[in-house]
Amino acid sequence: MGFLKRLFGGGPQEYVDKTGLYFYFKCANCGTVVKVRADKQHDLNNAAGGYVWHKTVVDSRCFRRMQVVLNLDRNYNVTNSEISGGQLVSEADYGNGDG
Ligand SMILES: [Zn+2]
Question: Quick check: pTM over 0.90?
Answer without folding.
Answer: no
